[in-house]
Amino acid sequence: MSSLRVVVWGENVHEHKNPKVGAIYPKGMHAAIAEGIRERIPGAIVATATLQEPEHGLSEERLAKTDVLTWWGHLAHDQVSDAVADRVQRRVLEGMGLIVLHSAHYSKVFRRLMGTTCSLHWREADDKERLWVCNPGHPIASGLGPQFELPAEEMYGEPFLVPPPEEQVFISWFEGGEVFRSGCTWRRGNGRIFYFRPGHETYPTYHNVTVRQVIANAVRWAAPQGHWPEVGKSPNARVHPEPIRPKP
Predict the structure, then answer these.
(1) Residue range 178-192: mean pLDDT, rounded
(2) What are the residue ranges spanned by the domains of the chain?
(3) Are 44 and 6 in contact (CB under 8 A)?
C-alpha cells in the first residue's frame, strides 16, 4: 500500500509580521501542523508549501502527487493567484482531500468550493472554547472524549454562511454564549472536505495534542476514495453517416 501524501499549505505572513506569532511558531504555523501529522501518521509523506514560493508551492505536478492538502490563510487571501485556486479546486473535484483550517474559511479555494461567502461573526477576546463531539462514531472524532477545551481562542459565531454540512462532527461553545459549527464535512466531486475552526495565530492551538489528533484523523478520512478524470470526446466516438432518404 502506497504512503499517504500530504501537503500542509500555510500563508506564512503573520509569523514574520507579529513577534508574538513568531515566538509561538518559530518555524511557521505550517511546520507545527505538519509536525502533528507526522507524529500521528508515521507512514505519511508530509511536506509543506507557502504563499511565497513559486506558484505558492502548488504546481500542477505537485498537486497531482498530493492525496490530502491542508490550508491555513488569513491576511493574504487575495494574494493567492486565481490560477492556483482553480488548480486546487480541480484536484479536489478529481479526488484530493482538503482540510480547511480556521480563517481559511475566507480563502478563494473554500469559497469557490462552497459557492457562498462563507462569512461569520467573530471576536478576539481570549475566550475559552469548548468543542463538543456531535458524532462520536465519525472517524474524525476517533480517540476523543465527549468534549475538549481550548483555554483561549478567537470566537467564531453563527450564522456561518456555508451550505448545510453533510456531516457535523463538532460544535463549539464560547464564554460569551455563542455557538459555532466548528467541524463540518462536505463532498465536492470525488473529493472530501473538512472545515475545522480552531487555530487563531496568536494562540498555541496547533501545539495542542487533541487538535493535532483531530487534524490527523481528518487527513486519514479525507484520503482519496477514487479519481474523477476530466471528460471530453470519447476515444471510441464514431461519426454516423447521414441516413439515406428516398428521392421525392
Answers:
(1) 97
(2) 5-222
(3) yes
